[in-house]
Design a protein that fits this description.
Elements lengths: L4 H6 L3 H11 L5 E2 H8 L3 H13 L3 E7 L2 E6 L4 H22 L2
Antiparallel strand pairs: 1-3, 2-3
Helix pairs in contact: 2-3
Amino acid sequence: MPKSVFLQEEGNTPKNRIWSFLIIHSEKKNSMKDIARHSKVGYTKLKQIWKEFREKKIVLQTRTVGKAKMYRLNLKNPVVNKFIDYYWAVVDYYFISRLCR
């Protein structure tokens, strides 16, 4: 599976993979298990990063389905919105720079 443009340009780190997944799928609510699987981050590592994301209110728990807690990006957080803008700016810059070659 090819890496996203953002990961190619900014580094294929666990935190960047989580950010990328959450931004691309910002309209969906996902469990931590789904986020770990789709972003290809180990569940233990996700839990470490997730603690920070929850403390900084980057993600919000939306509901519980059985034992699974569902989360989504907190689009009311100005830091999240700035990061989303940055994410798409990196992607745009990559494609614009490719067109100008």
